[in-house]
Amino acid sequence: MNNSVTNTARLFGAGLRALLVLTVVCGVLYPLAVTGIAQALFHHKANGSEIRSEGKVVGSELIGQRYDLPLKKGQETPKPDLKWFQPRPSNGLGTNTLNTQYKLLVSGATNLAADNPELVNSVKEAQSAVIKDNSVNGYQVKPSDIPADAVTSSGSGLDPDISPEYAELQVHRIAATNHLSVGQVRKLVEDHTDGRVAGFMGEPRVNVLKLNIALSELTEKG
Questions:
Q1: Which pairs from 187-193 meet CB under 8 Å and 24+ separation?
Q2: CA distance 133 to 80
Q3: How many CB atoms lie within 10 A of CB 30?
Q4: What is the pLDDT of residues 59-86, one digit of tens each?
Q5: pTM (2 decimals)?
Q6: Which residue of 37, 83, 102, 160 has the fewest CB atoms within a 10 Å radius of its CB?
Q7: Type and span of the H or E element at 60
């Protein structure tokens, strides 16, 4: 009996010591080490890839934003503010219905087939809007000019980037609405176009938030 109690106490003590050691190592030391390394070597990425303007955090490189006019009475969705470069459509999976304190878009793909009538109508409506919004005096957008990312959402529905082709398509409209030359705006796009990762992965892209911050700075100078 005494041996049984002794063995039980010994095993209990060993288990308790193992629990305490693993809690300290895995629950305290390891997270602190990983956090310290991330802050030291990847400070920008570890803090959410924040984008700052005038000393304030205005967004993240990883999450797209909308650039819309204030919602007017009777409107279900706001109209785009055409003085800014516009991102990809941000359909996602719909709006947040659980935490109604914030108006959030749930990230995710629509999962609609290519021949789904809902998707076909959505693309046609987006195509018409792109042509209407970006055709200005002396520049007419043709359906063949419109890249896929101008009329479709990404897999996440919250893509922060657009293709250089979609940015180029918006250049004339941006120049006209902001009283800038086409050359000035085109150079802005070129300066903010990132190439393929490591020279071969992915596609060239333009971060819309960074581009619009640069556009704001340019218009303020002008």
A1: 188/214, 188/215, 188/218, 189/164, 193/164, 193/167
A2: 9
A3: 11
A4: 899 988 889 888 888 888 889 999 999 9
A5: 0.81
A6: 102
A7: strand 56-60
